[in-house]
Amino acid sequence: MASASITFKTVLLSTILAAVLVNSYRFEVGDEKGWIKPTGKDPQTYNQWAAKNRFHIGDTVYFKYRNDSVLEVNSADYLNCNTSNPMSKFEDGNTVFQFDRSGFFYFISGQSDHCKVGQKIIIRVMHPSEVESPGPAPSPGGAGGGWDSDNWEPPGINSTTKLYALSYFTTVVTGLFIVLYLFM
Ligand SMILES: *[C@@H]1O[C@H](CO)[C@@H](O)[C@H](O)[C@H]1NC(C)=O
Ligand SMILES: *[C@@H]1O[C@H](CO)[C@@H](O)[C@H](O)[C@H]1NC(C)=O
């Protein structure tokens, strides 16, 4: 009995520690509409969405779609909507992609006609040194060849930053409560 209880506490504690240490944020691509072929006249929808957010290493993006797919590609294939040699391909309809480095990530629809009308997105993940001092984001200079600067807008500080702080706060408070409970 006692050992079962200790095991339970160990598992709970590890979970809490993991939750506190890995403070990542999940972004939903396209918000409630998800990952769809753009219907409006504005082909920059997804990059406008990306420009409004600040992405950190460890964060995830969630793609929700039907009868479609998500390809992670290089910058040239992004520009040409070339679906023939993706770095990764996802087609399960609920794709969670985690950023394991800073820099640029390029995603396009696996259907090149969808990509050509704007179902494509560039996400820039901030370098840890930028995270320390939130301020005007530096320009993405030196970001590799093939970069189309027309597709880039620097991210602003907005409600996502507050959400991020709130999510961190909530995690810490929840963790504290559970630790208190365990040791009472
Ligand atoms: C997806 O494709 C199937 C088969 O082609 C079709 O029956 C279904 O209506 C499609 N769903 C959407 C959301 O387009
Ligand atoms: C797509 O990429 C492949 C491999 O890099 C290349 O052989 C092919 O010509 C490209 N297709 C187009 C339409 O650019």
What does this entry show, briefly?
The chain has 184 residues and is an alpha+beta fold. 37% of the residues lie in helices and 18% in strands.
Describe the structure.
This protein has 184 residues and is of the alpha+beta class. The protein has a single domain, classed as Sandwich (Immunoglobulin-like). The chain is 37% helix and 18% strand. The strands form two sheets. The protein has a four-stranded antiparallel sheet. α1 packs antiparallel against α6. The longest helix has 25 residues.
Q: Overall pLDDT, averaged?
A: 78
> How many individual β-strands?
7
Based on the structure, what is the oligomeric state of the protein chains? single chain
CATH topology: Immunoglobulin-like
Task: Assign the structural class, choosing from mainly alpha, mainly beta, alpha/beta, alpha+beta, or little secondary structure.
Answer: alpha+beta
